[in-house]
Amino acid sequence: MRVLVIGGSGFIGRYVSRRLVASGHTVVSTFNSRPPVDDGATWRQVEITDPAGLDALFALARPDVVAHLAAMADVGTAERNPEAATAVNATATQAIARLSERHGARLVFVSTEYVFDGQSGPYAEVDTPAPNTQYGRTKLQGEQAVAAIASRWAVLRTSIVYGWPAPGRRNFVPMLVERLRDGEPYHGPTNVHRSPVYVEHLVDGIVRIAEADHAGIFHVAGADWVTMYDFAVAVAEAFGLDTNLVIPDRSTARDRLGLDSRRSMAALRLHHPGLADGLAAMRSAAPAG
Ligand SMILES: NC(=O)c1ccc[n+]([C@@H]2O[C@H](COP(=O)([O-])OP(=O)(O)OC[C@H]3O[C@@H](n4cnc5c(N)ncnc54)[C@H](OP(=O)(O)O)[C@@H]3O)[C@@H](O)[C@H]2O)c1
Prior knowledge:
By secondary structure, this protein is an alpha/beta fold. The chain contains 10 helices and 14 strands. The protein folds into 2 domains: 2-161 and 196-219, Rossmann fold (3-Layer(aba) Sandwich); 162-195 and 224-258 and 274-284, UDP-galactose 4-epimerase, domain 1, CATH 3.90.25. Helices cover 40% and strands 19% of the residues. The strands form 4 sheets. It has a 7-stranded parallel sheet, with helices on both faces. Helix 5 (134-149) links the parallel strand 5 and strand 6 (153-158). Helix 1 crosses helix 7 (199-212) and helix 8 packs across helix 10. It binds NADP nicotinamide-adenine-dinucleotide phosphate. NADP nicotinamide-adenine-dinucleotide phosphate binds at residues 7, 9-13, 31-34, 46-49, 69-73, 88, 110, 112, 139, 158, 160-161.
């Protein structure tokens, strides 16, 4: 299969690109500001808000499947830059949907739990989105463009994703591990819920959808719906660190995001790992040094 990974230089994209190459697919992966990694893919620089650049990319890649992960993926950055968030997450996704259609490619769009409002999670695939952040609104606009324009599409929503990032980049779990190792406390919100998923387990879902031609809306997140306090305690336990350094913080506003992925995991015929399994897998994949 010829696969175009848009956003291959991102945290999740790196894992997707690497896995697709390892599975024998012909992969063209994109970066924008971050230099590419040597994982066996063909790397191309693209700015997805530039229509001519996207045209040239599709002409080069001639994809059977497009995995679109490029986004302004930080909630705060999107809130501070609403127009840029719309251009990247919504308008460019519309252009990618049009090009996928023109090239006869299936489109897999990676989206987020932030399409929901956080009042009553965990959310299932059938629940009605009601975003209350610019990030969530623009990602939902992206989803709607994909569904309206592409005839062969899947939207995969996920929750907080953890794993080892590229050198110099940040991710919640390694940052927390470092903090607890240094003997510093972490105040874990007891009112903030998520369904954390280990990046390789998320990639299982993305690749299954890409390879097996699944269509529609999928939720691929961890099996455990937990507070950020519970998440931090589980991290401390998995990495053999002092759980007493994780202190419950009851002061934050209620935020019940998180995804119920049971229906999607069954449809995709995937095992549905929880937090303990994900953290154990991450620990055993720790980079040397
Ligand atoms: N991480 C999570 O916990 C999480 C949770 C739910 C959903 N998601 C979704 O998963 C996807 C990937 O997230 P991530 O955490 O891997 O994000 P990330 O590390 O910030 O990576 C974003 C990717 O998009 C590319 N990109 C951003 N703006 C671009 C532009 N204007 N033109 C071209 N490329 C651009 C980046 O390229 P450069 O870095 O090379 O500039 C990078 O490859 C996103 O769609 C996000 O909404 C992530």
